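User: Fold both of these, please.

Assistant: Here is the first one.
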Amino acid sequence: MKIVLNENDKKGKLSVEKQENQMIATLKALDIDLEKNFSILDFNGTYKRKFLGDSEVTKVKHYQLIVNDGKTLGAVYEALDQCDISNISITKTSHTELEKLRRETKLKALRTAKEKASDYADAIEQTIGKALFIQEIKNIANHNYYANNLNVANQVNVVGYGSETRKIHDLNIKPITITEKVMAKFTLI
């Protein structure tokens, strides 16, 4: 998540340093490992010259905080809101087993491709044989490239496309959607 501290966000013009100390104390009270999960993304200031008044410098600091679950996210948001820090946004959601889930989704897509190829073969009273070619597809619109390369060693191939989408609901926020596409060529027997 991204947290922004801005001196202009406060009516009493609380300095960024005081807001930062308050925020750090609050995060420590929530047992968040600041060494590992907290960092400064950006720090800048603007100087405003006033004609009939005191010139002023306004400071803004951007932070990144990594939280591991929706419960902690809610606790952080509530605690910082009580400190009048409300410029908070979620910048990225992920899952610790994302690669494993992608592999599983690809395997489901491959099984779907095999089922489709088998259905096509059944329609012409044949069965599918061994898979000759398996490829992950990043953009299914490019599948016409393979249409000209279906004959291998005088065998007829059935091409099955499989696509699987999976949603992960581990967090109490927007689910992560995984979509994988696979193309497989099978011989006909």
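And the second sequence with its predicted structure:
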Amino acid sequence: MRVRALQHVPHEGPAAVAAWAADRGHSLQVTRLDWGEPLPAVADFDLLVVMGGPMSANDEALHPWIVEEKRLIGETIQADRRLLGICLGAQMIAAALGKRIYAAPAPEIGWLAVRVTAGAARSRTFAGMPATITPLHWHGETFDLPEGAIRLAETDLCPNQAFEIEFDGGPERGGALALALQFHLEATEESVRAMVAAENPCATGAGGAGALPPEKALLASPAHYAAIHPFLHAALDALVTRPAAR
């Protein structure tokens, strides 16, 4: 399995996604858009992972590559590839599918519980998840749910925390499958330290002003990371397992 990650800023890399890929024997390449590297061709990957960043999916005038990245997401779906979006990446998937991206009522920053919806039981990637999980949040915007998507998780502040959407590729192909996570199941202590060092751009970005939780609370204990990574691995394993031809 060829995994390609799109990285937008130095402090939001693949983190635990890289560990999952190495453990499963998948190859992983990272395209550094913050270094000006060109977007890959769809033929170069089987799974596209769109990482987070402090910019908005609406910032096309500030970051012209956002237009091309949305195009690549659309091409990934058309080519029956697999797709994972994390935080900004989730919003980019929603935007590529024609949905609004807009300021949340307030930023969500910290280790906050999400409720797994009843609909998740019929999804490929979240079936079997517990009723609640407690990942890291670091966002100031939210999105509308694409048509045909299964809403997987919610909070009171942002009901659309995660979704899965499957696209019919025809009788001989499994079709594209996309998983969008507003939160960070891929967080590691190293990745969170990098986010903290970047001075919490979400607190002063498009989502409006918000207080940064104490650094100690954001970094959390090893138990926090150990608790969320099995959920990430299970979701990714399901995401890349192509169903039998219909």
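Confidence is low (pLDDT under 50) at residues 201-210.
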